Amino acid sequence: MPNDSIYSSDGLSCKEKSYIMSSCQKKSNRFVDLKILAAQAIRNKKIFSISGSSSAVRRALLERGWVEKIPANKMNLSKIRTDISSKTKIQHELERICLSNFVEKYDPNFVWRTRDERRDTTIDMNKDCNTIINKLQINATWTSKQGLCSSIKRNYWYHIEDVAEVSCPRSYSTSDSGDIEGFVKDYKITACTSLLKWILSMVANDRPVFVATGQISINVMVFAINRCKEYLLRKQNKDIDRLIQPISIRQWDSFLKKYYCIIAKDGVFQTDKGIKLPVYLSYSKFLLKEMHKYRPQLSCEGCHNIWIIKPGCCSRGRGIRMASKFGVIMNLLNKANTKYVIQKYIEEPLLIYETKFDIRQYYLVTSTYPLIIWMYKDCYLKFSSQKYSLKNYHESIHLTNNAVQRKYANCEGRHTDLPHNNMWDLNKYKSYLNKLGKDDVWDTIIYPGMKRSIISIMLSSQDSLSVSKNRFELYGCDFILDKEYKPWLIEINSCPDLNHTTQVTAQICPAVQSDIIKVVIDYASNPKASTGRFERIYRQPVTMPQYGNAADLSLRGYSLPLDYFYKGNIEVQEMYEDTKIGKENDVKEVRKLLKEAYNTEMIMKQPEEDFTFPDKKEKDTCTHKTLSEYEMEVTASAVNKQLDKLMERIPSDYSFSDKCGLKLNPSLSLNPIQKVCSVTNLHSLVKNSVSRVTILDDLIKTFNFSKLDDGPHGKGSIVDYGPIQQIHFNRLNALDDGKNVTKPNHVEFNNLTQVVKSATAEIVSFINNKEKEYLSKI
């Protein structure tokens, strides 16, 4: 045979075919068997074609009596000439080529393509054929970084309680100008929440935050508190009837400089001259709890305001940058020619032996309409080669991709239980959870959470898919766990790498491919067949529309009874307990009380130094209400005034010990919510009013110090709730004075509690009388 034909890309030559046939005919019985096998494959439509190695898929199909049709560009004898030395292997390869030659005139019924050959158009899918292909008809939009970002934006339309709920870090795409503006706002409010979290954590761990030698005004903290309150007002739609003054760029720049000084340069605050620190801490904790409803990532995003910038056109961790300063991020985006996705970095992930990891989870889509999703019950963990730290943003610490980590050697001092190849299988991870006493975490939190995220993303991306007949595709997801074991979806990969890079992948990847054949071949023909480790997690319900004639449309109505309409006279009676209002027609006084009742001024006056803001002037608005609404609101206003009078008595008679060094300001309102203007909501008003005296009790449960944070003192961040001593605030004020801090007088606290109980009883009695009086007037 001539050497130039050995590496031919156009298939076998006539001489090569003759050589193969003659070699097989030497074993006449085997040659007959091959012809029979090929004829059965043609008749039963069991011809397949595979691009790439995919030996597990080839093996699974051959076991089921399928015949492989080798692509023409790979039909040659180079393997026999260069790689095979055994006569048995040579004979096996000759028989494989011979079978392919028998079916070369027929289209394959099963095609397994690689990433580069997904757009192969040799098969006309517009015709009614039974060819099964392992790629969907169009590119999966959710597997690109921009596409996943868009899917997350519209995901709330497809939310299904306990079925489709995605947890994904906040992401923004530079291809959308609106997203850039959204990122700027998000970055600024994140800086505010990060500062409050840092302060609460440092105080909870008895760290010196407010000292006499501090250079930063406490007004910086107040600025962050006010911005968080404004954020909540917008989220709760309470900014409709009130004007929130915009913050200038100069004010934001000044705040961010102080924020960087505190977080990155170990800056501390000046001492609290107004003795309002307990109020600020209590209100900060309240704001963070309320904001967590709208920002779930608040529990694991840390205090450093780090963002990860991913180029949309790259994969395998290439081109990824991390930054925390606003100017650095914006300069990178402005200078770049490519499109980026900006994603909030999870600064407090769950670690294993001080090392970051993520979970690679596979899922399979076998139908787009209706949507059918299968999830693989097995997975594996990918570790970083270095210990986790926020002091350094190097990729070897923060990017767990195997393509990145295999470039670096494992760090010194690494725990011996961590794998040398940086991968764990699921059984190893479950064994680790059992040692921690968390053996039920996988089945109750992690696996169900990943399942809900996958279903949610697929539902939100279904509109971009077309109806694909006999098509399926495998995807690989990457999840990161937070300290509550909640999975966060980072990205989804199409054409995931199924090569044997480590011992872990050498076991799971062939099993995945083999089980795919069980789903798309065996289960498709027999619903009782085994699907291996694949579990069907979602099948979209399909409702067949029922069409009728126009005559079938009808409108049915029911007449109202005569006594439905009230025909009596409505008696208007005066019911005003406030001495300022003599008649119901005194509209000005009513409006004044309504304005007081709906007062939404901030609980703390805006600081004058460092941050100056324009005074807020509320405009009078003409509101038309019924007389009953006026009566109810005026009654509520009277209740509010009575509460104020009772509460003013308490701090005046019973205050904290001077030795403790902490007094409450009786004139300072601690109620973070606007005054109640409804009789039906008075019980919450009592609770909020009593909280004026029990500020320190409210701080008993606050934030623990995170061991994962870096810095000389360890930058604080919220992890979970834990104890905080009441003496902390006094100790902070006496740090630099050299005074001995004594414990608070518990007798005074007990006496104060008795007064609170007495005042509360009087308040409740007053409220009940008001409610009875109001109800008697209706």
Keywords:
Tubulin glycylase 3A-like; disordered N terminus; 22 helices; 6-stranded antiparallel sheet; ATP-binding; 778 residues; D-amino Acid Aminotransferase, Chain A, domain 1; TTL/TTLL_fam; alpha+beta; 4 domains; 4-stranded parallel sheet; TTLL_monoglycylase; ligase
Using the 3D structure, state the CATH architecture of the largest domain.
Answer: 2-Layer Sandwich
- Give the structural class: alpha+beta
The H-level CATH homologous superfamily of the largest domain, spelled out, is ATP-grasp fold, B domain
How many strands, what sense, and barrel or not for the largest sheet? 6 strands, antiparallel
For the record, the count of structural domains works out to 4
Mean pLDDT, to the nearest integer, reads 75
CATH class of the largest domain: Alpha Beta
InterPro entries: TTL/TTLL_fam (IPR004344), TTLL_monoglycylase (IPR051437)
Main location: cytoplasm
Organism: Bicyclus anynana
Keywords: ATP-binding, Cytoplasm, Ligase, Nucleotide-binding
Structure commentary:
It is found in: Cytoplasm. It comes from Bicyclus anynana (Squinting bush brown butterfly). One of its GO terms (molecular function) is protein-glycine ligase activity, initiating. Helix 3 runs parallel beside helix 16. The chain has 4 domains: 3-133, no CATH class; 141-169 and 346-539, D-amino Acid Aminotransferase, Chain A, domain 1 (2-Layer Sandwich); 170-345, no CATH class; 587-613 and 620-693 and 745-777, no CATH class. It is globular. A hairpin with a 2-residue loop joins strand 9 and strand 10. Strands 9, 10, 11, 12, 13 and 14 form a 6-stranded antiparallel beta sheet that branches. Strands 2-1-3-4 form a 4-stranded parallel beta sheet. It has 22 helices and 16 strands. The protein is of the alpha+beta class. It has helices at residues 14-25, 28-43, 55-63, 78-82, 87-102, 145-153, 177-204, 219-235, 249-265, 277-291, 326-335, 395-398, 402-405, 426-435, 441-461, 503-525, 587-597, 627-653, 682-690, 695-698, 728-733, 746-777, and strands spanning 47-50, 67-68, 110-112, 132-133, 171-173, 307-311, 321-323, 340-344, 357-368, 371-383, 423-425, 473-481, 487-494, 534-539, 701-703, 721-723.
